[in-house]
Amino acid sequence: MTTQVITTRFPYKDAEDLKHYAELKQVPLAELVRLCCKSYVELEQQKLQLEQLKNEITQATFTMLTTVTDMSNEERQNAARLINSELDGVMVE
Predict the structure, then answer these.
(1) Domain ranges in the chain?
(2) pLDDT averages per 10-residue partition of the chain, 93 residues
(3) Could you give the C-alpha distances from 53 to 42, 65, 83, 87, in angstroms and in order?
(4) What is the pTM (predicted TM-score) of this model?
(5) Which among 32, 34, 8 is positioned nearest to 20, based on CA atoms?
């Protein structure tokens, strides 16, 4: 495995917290920072996946409900506009 040195500065308190946590986990400080970065990236990816899933579920539910209630195309478009404006981050068509 090829490695690369990255130097960064942390506020004193943060650096001490990192050292303390590394000692508790019995891992080198560099390994702890790598694990933290990896965890952060994975968490951000999970957030994106959950957002996509939420949109897919909302779209499927919207389609099902507008079909079952026999909405006209105009009613459906009005309902979609309302949902898109009221639900943050959700987009239905």
Answers:
(1) 14-86
(2) 90 97 96 96 98 93 94 93 86 85
(3) 16, 18, 16, 15
(4) 0.73
(5) 32
